[in-house]
Amino acid sequence: xxxxxxxxxxxxxxxxxxxxxxxxxxxxxxxxxxxxxxxxxxxxxxxxxxxxxxxxxxxxxxxxxxxxxxxxxxxxxxxxxxxxxxxxxxxxxxxxxxxxxxxxxxxxxxxxxxxxxxxxxxxxxxxxxxxxxxxxxxxxxxxxxxxxxxxxxxxxxxxxxxxxxxxxxxxxxxxxxxxxxxxxxxxxxxxxxxxxxxxxxxxxxxxxxxxxxxxxxxxxxxxxxxxxxxxxxxxxxxxxxxxxxxxxxxxxxxxxxxxxxxxxxxxxxxxxxxxxxxxxxxxxxxxxxxxxxxxxxxxxxxxxxxxxxxxxxxxxxxxxxxxxxxxxxxxxxxxxxx
Length: 338
Prior knowledge:
Layout: H1 3-13, E1 20-22, E2 28-32, H2 39-55, H3 60-67, E3 77-85, E4 88-95, H4 97-106, E5 115-117, E6 119-126, E7 133-134, H5 144-161, E8 165-166, H6 176-179, H7 182-194, E9 199-207, E10 213-217, E11 220-224, H8 227-245, E12 256-263, H9 268-278, E13 284-293, E14 296-303, H10 307-316, E15 320-326, E16 331-336
Parallel strand pairs: 6-8, 6-9, 12-16
Antiparallel strand pairs: 1-5, 2-4, 3-4, 6-7, 9-10, 10-11, 12-14, 13-14, 15-16
């Protein structure tokens, strides 16, 4: 297959805008059984993790604020059970969505909805032994154990923080000619343009000598004697990328009421789907239908964080399309995407 044809196939494969996706298991937390002695301790750990996931922040002041309430955190749990997952025994905790959201709103703590930005890792690996390749779930060449452990850590981090981390390239080994062509540049630009709401983190890992590795990340080079240490360092910095992605735009000056117009709703089912889609945006509360006229429905709601945070979550939404957005008047026209 020639270089141009391969490049076209790759670009078409990633051309769909997947910069944001619903994180379906947002209210499900799993804790390794080895991490706690009694179930209640496991439930408390699960609550701490769901707090980080919903707020997008590891700020300990948030947990201190909630702990000061003397709340029985187990009362926010819908169910829990021990499961086997990837060869480990885990405590799976499902939280009761409505009272949990109410808790954060009552404490004026902003939280992120289920439509979240997406982080893409574009990781180029050169071990000096095999052809240069890009990290993917199905890659299994030299240093397989270290690479597999890094991919597993990315998956664990994805579940912990509540957003998708993607390795978008399938198992394709790029030859010297491909790397020297415009195909790779076009690939990188296409990823960046299609992930406008998310973020593409580019890293390079290459062997300097038999005993040393270099990580190139954010225009800096870091040298390591151990590949596992290199990947752990990369993981810490990827976690910081997630901090930035999930940072909530909270502005008290832009809080208050908001008016939302639903366009072209043609059935009661579409009306219900639209309202359910709105309720996935945790930056809007107290959503009420004001009036309906043919295919147009007018809703009102309260802004919980800021008008710009609502805009971020709408851009990320899988089923709502912004037709018009008047920030000053706080009016939004939306269309349901079927």
